[in-house]
Amino acid sequence: MRSLYDLSLRFKIPLWGSVLILVTAGSVGLALMFHAYDDLRQDVLISADSLGRTLSKTLFPVMLHDDVWHAYEIINAPFHSATPANPMQASALVLLNEQGRVYVSTQAYVYPVLADFGKLGPGYERLAKKLPGIRDHSSRNFELEGSNQIVVATPIAEGQERLGTLLIFYSKSVFVPRFLAIASRAGGITLLVLTILLPINWYWGRHLALPLMKLSSRMGEIGTHIPEPPDPAAYVHRDEVGELFVAFGKMVEALREGERMKDEMVRSQRLAAVGRLAVGIAHEVNNPLAGMLTAVDTLKQRPDIDPRVIKTVGLLERGLMQIRDTVQALLVDSRVVDRALAPNDIEDMRTLFQSHLLEKQLDLEWHSGLTQEIPLPATYVRQVVINLLLNAIQAAPGGGQIECRVEPEAEGLNIMVANTGALLTAEQMARLFEPFATAKEMGHGLGLWVTYQIVQQLRGSITAENGSDTVRFVVQLPLEHRP
User: Fold this and answer.
1) 405-434, pLDDT tens digit by residue?
2) What does the alpha-carbon distance between residue 121 and residue 145 come to, in Å, rounded to a whole number?
3) Per-residue pLDDT tens digits for 201-256
4) Among 13, 25, 41, 243, which one is least packed by beta carbons within 10 Å?
5) Which residue range forms the structural domain that includes residue 368?
6) What is the tally of structural domains in the chain?
7) Residue 463: in which H helix or E strand, if any?
C-alpha cells in the first residue's frame, strides 16, 4: 500500500482521482438501485393495501352469510386480468376466518379449505400469531420467514365486528425483472458518466502533475548548478502551482545574482592582485627600459650607421616601446598618448614571430589590408595582435596552421587570429579572459586578460569560438576611440 503513495504525481493524481470517481459512481449507482427497489416495494404495498381494503368491504357480507363460493369468486377476480410481468400482481390470496383457518384461497392445493393456517409451516405459525394483533382496519405487511414472499394482511371487519383476515401474498421474485431494468439503466448512466469523467480526470491530473515534475527536476539540479528558470509556458495559470513557479523563478534569479556577485568579488580580488603586481613590474622594468631606449636613440643619432642597422635599430626601438606600453597597460588608471596605427606596425608582427613559427614548423596564413594610417593607438593594437599570435602559436600543435587577418573597415578595424589544435572547453570559455586563468603549463594567464583590458579601453569587443578543428579569436575595434 505504501508503494502507491510513493508513485509519481503524474500517476498518483489521476489514479486516486479515478478511484474516487469509481467509488462515487458505484455508491451513487447502488444507492439509486436500492432506492428504486424500495420504491417498487412501497408501490406494491400501497397497491396491496388498496386491494385489501376494497376486497374487505366486499367480503364482509359474503362471510357474514357464509357464502364460500361467492367469496372464492371475489378473491379470484383480480387474477382474471393479470399480466405475468406485472410486479403489482399478487401470487395468491388467502381468506382466513376468525379461528385462523383457511376459509377460501386462490391456491387450494397449497392452502386447503379449513386447514389450520398456523400449521402449514414454521413461517406460517409465526405469522398466524401476529395476525390477532391487527386491531384497526388498516393493512399490515410481513415477511414470511423461510420463503421469498411478502404478505399483506387486511382484517375483514366492520365496526367492532371482525370475521376474519385477508392475506395477499407477493413473491419477491416478481421484483427482479423491474429491478434489473432499473439497474441496467443506472449502470448505463454510470458508465456514461465514467466514460466522460475518467479521461477528463487523467487529463487534468497529468496537466497538473507534469509541471510539478518539471519543477521538481529543476529543483534537484540546485545541488550541482544553478538551473534554468522555468518556462513561462509550462504553467500559465495563477493558482498555487503558478505561484510556486513564480517563486522558483525568483529564487533562480536570486541565486544567479548571488553567483554574479561572487564572480565579481573574485574578479575584483584578482584585479587587485594584478594591480599590486603591475606596480612592482612598473618600478622594476621602467628604469632599465628607459636606459635602453636612451641608448637606442643615441645609436640612431650616429651619422656613420649602416642603413641595415638602422632598420634593425628601429625594430628594437618599437619592441622596447611595446614593452614599456605593455607595462603601462597593466596599470588600471594608465593613459597612454600614442601615435596612429601604421601598416609597418602590423608587418613588424610577421617579422617578430618568424622564429617561433619555424621552431614549431607552423604554417602562417597572413593577410593585412592596412595600407595607410588609421586613428587607433598603435601600441595597444600591436599588443593585441602580439598576444593573440603568441597564444595561437603556443596552442597550435607542431606542423599546424596559424591564420591572421587584419581588415580595416569604414567603422573600425577587424582582427582575426585562428589556430588548429585542441578546442576550448566550456569551462575554459567561461574563464577565458580572467587573470591567471590558463590551461598552458608555462602560461601565466595574463595575455588574454591584458588583451581583454586593452579592447575594453578601446571600446571594442573580443570573442572566442570553436570551429570544426580550429579556435578563432575575433577583435572589433571602432575608429571613434577616445583614450
Assistant:
1) 999 988 889 999 999 988 888 888 877 777
2) 10
3) 667 666 666 676 676 777 766 767 777 776 666 666 666 666 777 777 788 788 77
4) 243
5) 341-483
6) 2
7) strand 461-466
Residues 118 and 348: their CA atoms lie apart, in Å, by 135
Residues 6 or more apart from 398 whose CB is under 8 A from it?
360, 361, 362
Q: What is the mean pLDDT of the chain?
A: 78
Q: What is the helix (H) or strand (E) element at residue 471, kind and residue range?
A: strand 470-478
> pLDDT for 80-121, tens place per residue?
765 655 666 788 899 988 888 999 998 888 889 888 888 888
Asked whether residue 234 is assigned to any structural domain, the reply reads no
Domain boundary residue among 159, 179, 199?
A: 179
Q: What is the CATH number of the domain that holds 428?
A: 3.30.565.10
In a domain, 377, yes or no: yes
Phi and psi angles of residue 153, each rounded to the nearest 5 degrees, phi first:
-105, 130
One DSSP character per residue, 210-234 reads HHHHHHHHHHHTTTTSPPPPPPGGG
CA distance 104 to 392: 124
- Secondary structure (3-state) at 3: helix
Q: Does the residue 76 lie in any domain?
A: yes
The distance from CA 52 to its chain's CA centroid, rounded to whole angstroms, is 70
Comparing CA positions, the residue from 414, 332, 335, 325 lying closest to residue 378 is 325
Q: What is the pLDDT of residues 103-112, one digit of tens each?
A: 999 888 888 9
**CA angle 422–428–430, rounded 5-degree value:** 145
